[in-house]
Amino acid sequence: MRPAATLSVFALLLAAPVTAQPNPVDMRSGCLTWTNVTGLISSSLFIVPSGSRFVLTDVAVSRAPYGGPFPAGGGPAIRLTINTGGTTPVGRWISTDRIESTDAPLQLHWTTGIVFEPNESVEAAASVQSGTAPTITVCWSGYLTPATTTSVNPGPSSSGGLALLARPNPARETTELSFRLDRAQRVLVGVFAVDGRRVRTLRRGTLDAGEHHVTWDGRDDCGRLVASGVYFAGVETADRRETRRIARLR
Question: Minimal CB count within 10 Å: which of 31, 69, 133, 245?
């Protein structure tokens, strides 16, 4: 597995330049342990209180219980996603490197942090590639900052930035992705599996400013219908990325 600093990600990392060190009373942290995990599992790590933003700075992923020894035995590969939770979670950081059973705990640190808005849920999701993972522990830390502060530049909500939407969701036939560009620029539009694998490239090239619509017919790059399940649709430009969780039904 490559070092965390070189992880390949398809993610939305929101800049949060800070003019001063956060006050210790504003720091938040915790650990969550899942046991006997098969397939995809997700849980809320933290609910941002009203009147504050939360800047997530550090996450650690281990196969051991909190405070316990690192297991010597094997196990299936896993991947981690950090989302804004909700009825339709929004992917904020998606690892495309597998965490193998022989790898040390994964340590993630975002210098600028990932910003969550008031009342949003910070969600972690783990995808087990095959078999069952006896234990997965996610530890996290970050800090609160007043929602009125100018020291944090929050990323776009669904009404700003790329304004990526996926409709209908869930879908049995086609899913239309819509997004907006503020200027002509190169764009990559794709669909990804929960493990970060690219399923379909829908558009690659330069698009004009304005609203765009791209349709996914539920097929992969080889023309095969994908299985029912959860996928991620993503739009990436030179300076911004957005993802949306989408569900396919057959």
Answer: 69
